Amino acid sequence: MTKPEWPTVNDLLNSLLNASKLVDGTTLGEKMNRAEEGIYIEDCFHIDSLHYEGYTLEEEKRHQANIGIMNDLRNEILNQGYSLLRNVLTSGCDIVGYGFPNPQSKEREMIPPSVWAFSNIDYEKNAVYDYQKNILYAGLVFSLITSPPPMTPPETGASFPGRRSLIAAVKQEMERRAKCKEMILTLEGEARYLSEWAEVQFPGKQTPTPKTIENALRNLYRELKNTHPSFPRNNRV
Questions:
Q1: Which DSSP category does 229 fall into?
Q2: Quick one: which of 184, 199, 215, 119 has its CA closest to 151?
Q3: Read out DSSP for 144-178?
Q4: Is the CB of residue 144 less than 8 Å from the CB of residue 190?
Q5: To 5 degrees, how large is the angle CA 59–CA 60–CA 66?
Q6: Is there a contact between 126 and 9 (Cβ–Cβ < 8 Å)?
Q7: What is the C-alpha separation between 28 and 16, in angstroms, rounded?
Q8: Cα(217)–Cα(190) distance, rounded to whole angstroms?
Q9: Does residue 59 come out as left (phi exceeding 0), alpha (psi in the -120 to 50 range) or beta?
Q10: Which of 7, 110, 184, 210 would bridge with 189, disulfide CB 3.0–4.6 Å?
Q11: Rounded to an integer, what distance in angstroms lies between the CA atom of residue 99 and that of residue 127?
Q12: What is the pLDDT of residues 207-229, one digit of tens each?
């Protein structure tokens, strides 16, 4: 694994906040900085004011109200950032996460994009948990991806020998391509691409032919085309 662009989940969160442009031309990161600066100034003023005998109950109420407003703004920005981060990681299009799956692990493993959709991220401990609070991955780091990460083919068995065992992997890749707006405009072209993709991803395996992919994933292709009407970037093939 190459050196990650973001060594913690908070680094990635801050990067996304700073890159998120608002309609007024500012970013979520700048908005966050203003909220935190406001909280700091208000706290400093409050501490100074406590030394004066004339400090009144009304002034204390006003201070608490101002702190509440700025904390609400800060939490609103954080929630937007959390949602943005989860969407980016779940799409699997631009950024991939890595982590240690257990305390004995010596190397980080790539975290499947589907994990981010059904898990809790602990920003303080830099880890991701399932909903039963069992740790899934710790020591999170994140990197940009320029091509889909290699996939592990499903186990073959007596009931799904050869090409059929790889259809699940091809299906997952088609779904990823739809999310990333990479699907080809015709089923024939998409099936031909996916057949070539499978040959590269799973050398030595009996990969499905374009015709097999067409027949197996025809309904899925139509469904994805309707679900993601803005695809594709690619030309008709």
A1: T
A2: 199
A3: E-SSPPP-PPPPPBTTB-GGGGGHHHHHHHHHHHH
A4: no
A5: 90
A6: yes
A7: 8
A8: 10
A9: alpha
A10: 184
A11: 8
A12: 899 999 999 999 999 998 888 75
Residues in the chain: 237
Whole-model pTM: value is 0.62
In terms of Cβ atoms closer than 10 Å to its own Cβ (0-12, 13-18, 19+), residue 178 is: buried
Q: Which amino acid is at 30?
A: E
The HSE-up count of residue 35 (CA atoms within 13 Å, CB side) is 18
Q: Whole-angstrom Cα distance, residue 237 to residue 229?
A: 18
What gap in Å lies between CA 36 and CA 157, rounded to an integer?
Answer: 57
- Ramachandran category for residue 95: left, alpha or beta (phi over 0 → left; psi -120 to 50 → alpha): beta
